[in-house]
């Protein structure tokens, strides 16, 4: 039943004429202007609101259905969300994409210009934040009652520019013009405490006397499902000074800066997304952010629980809280504190509830990326939480001692507190101990977690460990990103049901042998290259798009480029397969080694460009500021997907899935989800190279010497020497030195195998029909990598939740 009927509201129309009327009305009543005097920004915001209104009605019905069902909820806690632009998605999901464009044209507005003002909220660094966004999309599409919680950073991931080829970071004030997709909800603001000390009262009850009070103000964005009426939300918290934080007496005395000191201090908590996803920086502020997110979100979750429930023992039946990596792990001691200190539950009951409520997704294997916090700092900021962690640890270590009598070393390794060389709280250990399920994000990753990184825990609680292979939203990464290929697929399959049921892509296999389908497939790829507008659309478009990290090995791709360059220089007369090599990605601002690689890529690109003997065959392009928007332009144009990390280092990858789904062939190592991609698409349709994880580990353990490879392989030596000799504008000697003397990620060990595999790529490319066939098969067999499958795996194996259908 339409809620609006009861409210006397008119339903929103589905025709272009009605949409046009609503545009005019919103322009007038909500922007206070008319078509004649509207700026493009006015037009954009009005369009956004008019689209949003159509989802708001579904949101109201969703909330009503959820209230009536009192279901088990999934609460997804993530420090990052890389949502991508909202307008195109929301037009698609509300079915207004066509009528909106007609209506705008009727009003004399240029739809492309208006839609061009939509901004990408960059509230994440890379894969982890994008996974969060893809899972929210899939949960809504599958009608799972869910709320995403995060932080509304004022400044998102920095904007990357290049100056003389070097990365320069600019602040990303993404909501400077406002954000029409957001609903502020000031009534649901929460109070968050920091610092202070703890006291015991006469009954032995502990209370925390905090030293700082900050307000968390929420706003939410809509998360519509595709092909369903469910509209979930993602709720983002912004820090505010409390009312008393403005010092009027100082202001009156002319001390303007001092007057707002406290408020500024408070608001700093949600000021910036930490641009660094693998090393520590701004430590205390970062820990503050984590607690801020967790404290606000848990109080909100409890508020929501109480709308329909009273009994605490029901809490785990109605609530599952998924921790996206360790950043929100403080939720575990925080819920203990709320239950024991504030609600008066006894410890054991509280602990049972907490453990049943949480689940933890681990995203790394790199030991240096496992979060820890110094005990003195932790104690200063969150004194009560440290006490709670100590108590959890006591109980837990008793359990370990009982299971493994006399194994002192194991107890030391598993403790929530590291003692040497300094005392630190181990967040991953806490996350494993305080949850009912722990999952890795690809088969290999989950195996390695259980056999190496978290081995002690897997031996204690084998049943707790799961695998849930990551996935991507087919709406975002093929339907929206690649509309022409989507149309061709729908035509080939006789319908568009595949968008919500990606396994149906298997139906394309039969068409891979159809000559005319293949030629249309090629034409789409070609047109996507023209749309991208970088490099010759006839050339093999070879892409490596991801964060810059030494383990991902952009430097290996670079050595291959330099080798191609040398080969062409040595034999200029020969025919070479023309390639456009495209890099995109950001390096963490303090990650100097990665920034040197960026600078060297740009230098190599310039040298090649300036060389007329080489440039007809080889072009290196590096568009700045990789984000979801740029990725969505590049991915549909890619022929070759570079997934060349050192085996055992990439947890899963999701870029690899996006590219395979769009018909790129992968060249890759047996790492992360590459293994599953190769299993699905078939070894013949994947270019494999390099050491596998056991071989890489053995090599490292047996004293790897990069220089041996340099000594043995003349092509490699030539490539490295040219870097060391400064042949590329004198840039990049640090990169060469580091590879030759250290090479932490076995780049040189895999070089020969990689270059040979690239030769196979060239050979395969020359058989156009076969290549296209492989491309179609990659798409046809990528159904498994839908985030819908990922969410179904979570729902069945970990969350045990059921969908709630939203009624009409
Ligand atoms: C998918 C995606 C990533 C993750 O890429 P990987 O190749 O899996 O590391 C990072 N950033 C953006 C913007 C993405 O869309």
Task: Give a quick summary of the entry.
With 808 residues, the protein is α/β, with parallel strands linked by helices. The protein has two domains: 266 residues, Glycogen Phosphorylase B (Rossmann fold, 3-Layer(aba) Sandwich); 309 residues, Rossmann fold. The protein is built from 35 helices and 25 strands.
How would you portray this structure in words?
By secondary structure, this protein is an alpha/beta fold. It has two domains: 70-84 and 120-370, 3-Layer(aba) Sandwich (Rossmann fold), CATH 3.40.50; 474-782, Rossmann fold. Helix content is 48%, strand content 14%. Strands 1, 4, 7, 8, 11, 12, 13, 14, 18 and 19 form a ten-stranded mixed beta sheet that branches. A six-stranded parallel beta sheet has the order 22-21-20-23-24-25, with helices on both faces. The protein has a three-stranded antiparallel beta sheet with strand order 15-17-16. The longest helix is centred in the first third of the chain and has 30 residues, at 40-69. The mean pLDDT is 95. The structure holds pyridoxal-5'-phosphate. Pyridoxal-5'-phosphate (PLP) binds at residues 82, 126-127, 130, 546-547, 626-628, 631, 653-655, 658. Residues 82, 126-127, 130, 546-547, 626-628, 631, 653-655, 658 line the site of pyridoxal-5'-phosphate (PLP).
């Amino acid at each position: 039943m339409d809620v609006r009927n009861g409210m006397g509201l008119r339903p929103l129309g589905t025709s272009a004429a009605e949409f046009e009327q609503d545009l005019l009305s919103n322009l007038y009543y909500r922007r206070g202007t008319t078509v004649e005097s509207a700026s493009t920004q006015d037009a954009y915001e009005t369009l956004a609101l008019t689209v949003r209104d159509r989802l708001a009605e579904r949101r109201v019905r969703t909330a009503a259905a959820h209230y009536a069902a009192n279901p088990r909820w999934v609460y997804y806690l993530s420090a990052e969300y890389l949502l991508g632009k909202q307008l195109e998605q929301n037009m698609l999901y509300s079915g207004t994409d066509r009528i909106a464009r007609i209506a705008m044209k009727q009003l004399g507005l240029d739809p492309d210009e208006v839609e061009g003002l939509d901004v990408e909220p960059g509230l994440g660094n890379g894969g982890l934040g994008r996974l969060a966004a893809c899972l929210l999309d899939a949960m809504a599409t599958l009608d799972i009652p869910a709320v995403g919680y995060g932080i509304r950073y004022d400044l998102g991931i920095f904007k990357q520019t290049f100056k003389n080829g070097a990365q320069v970071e600019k602040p990303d004030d993404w909501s400077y013009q406002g954000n029409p997709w957001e609903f502020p909800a000031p009534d649901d603001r929460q109070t968050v405490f920091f610092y202070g000390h703890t006291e015991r009262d006469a009954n032995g009850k502990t209370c925390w006397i905090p030293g700082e009070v900050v307000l968390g103000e929420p706003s939410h964005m809509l998360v519509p499902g595709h092909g369903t009426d469910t509209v979930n939300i993602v709720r983002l918290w912004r820090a505010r000074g409390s009312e008393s934080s403005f010092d009027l007496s100082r202001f009156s005395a002319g001390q303007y800066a001092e007057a707002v000191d406290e408020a500024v201090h408070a608001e700093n908590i949600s000021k910036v997304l930490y641009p660094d996803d693998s090393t520590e920086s701004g430590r205390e502020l970062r820990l503050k952010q984590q607690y801020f997110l967790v404290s606000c979100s848990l109080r909100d979750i409890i508020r929501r629980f109480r709308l329909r429930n009273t009994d605490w023992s029901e809490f785990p039946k109605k609530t599952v809280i998924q921790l996206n990596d360790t950043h929100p792990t403080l939720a575990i001691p925080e819920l203990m504190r709320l239950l024991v200190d504030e609600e008066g539950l006894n410890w054991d009951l509280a602990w049972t509830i907490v453990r049943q409520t949480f689940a933890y997704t681990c995203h790394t294997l790199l030991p240096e990326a496992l979060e820890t916090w110094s005990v003195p700092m932790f104690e200063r900021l969150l004194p009560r939480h440290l006490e709670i962690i100590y108590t959890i640890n006591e109980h837990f270590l008793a359990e370990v001692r009982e299971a493994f009598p006399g194994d002192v070393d194991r107890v030391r390794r598993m403790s929530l507190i590291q003692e040497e060389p300094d005392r630190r709280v181990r967040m991953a250990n806490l996350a494993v101990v305080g949850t009912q399920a722990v999952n890795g994000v690809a088969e290999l990753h989950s195996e390695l977690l259980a056999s190496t990184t978290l081995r002690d825990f897997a031996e204690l609680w084998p049943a707790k460990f799961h695998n849930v292979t990551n996935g991507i939203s087919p709406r975002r990464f093929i339907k929206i990103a690649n509309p022409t290929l989507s149309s061709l697929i729908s035509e080939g399959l006789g319908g568009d049901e595949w968008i919500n049921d990606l396994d149906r892509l298997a139906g394309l296999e039969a068409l891979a042998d159809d000559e005319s389908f293949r030629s249309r497939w090629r034409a789409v790829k070609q047109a996507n290259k023209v749309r991208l507008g970088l490099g010759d659309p006839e050339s093999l478009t070879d892409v490596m798009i991801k964060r810059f990290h030494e383990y991902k090995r952009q430097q290996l791709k670079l050595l291959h480029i330099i080798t191609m360059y040398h080969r062409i220089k040595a034999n200029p007369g020969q025919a070479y397969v023309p390639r456009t090599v495209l890099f995109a990605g950001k390096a963490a601002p303090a990650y100097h080694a990665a920034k040197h690689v960026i600078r060297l890529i740009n230098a190599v690109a310039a040298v090649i460009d300036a060389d007329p003997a080489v440039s007809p065959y080889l072009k290196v392009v590096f568009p700045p500021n990789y984000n979801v928007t740029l990725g969505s332009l590049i991915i549909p144009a890619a022929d070759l997907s570079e997934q060349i990390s050192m085996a055992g280092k990439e947890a899963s990858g999701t870029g690899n899935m996006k590219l395979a789904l769009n018909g790129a062939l992968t060249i890759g190592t047996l790492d992360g989800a590459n293994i599953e991609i190769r299993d699905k698409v078939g070894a013949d349709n994947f270019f494999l190279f390099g050491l596998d994880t056991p071989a890489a580990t053995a090599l490292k353990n047996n004293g790897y010497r990069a220089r041996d490879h340099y000594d043995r392989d003349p092509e490699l030596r030539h490539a490295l020497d040219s870097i060391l000799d400064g042949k590329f504008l004198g840039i990049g000697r640090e990169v060469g030195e580091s590879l030759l003397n250290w090479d932490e990620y076995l780049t040189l060990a895999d070089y020969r195998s990689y270059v040979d595999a690239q030769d196979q790529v060239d050979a395969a490319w020359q058989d156009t029909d076969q290549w296209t066939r492989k491309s179609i098969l990659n798409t046809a067999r990528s159904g498994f990598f839908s985030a819908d499958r990922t969410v179904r795996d979570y729902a069945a194996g970990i969350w045990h939740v059921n969908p709630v259908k939203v009624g009409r």
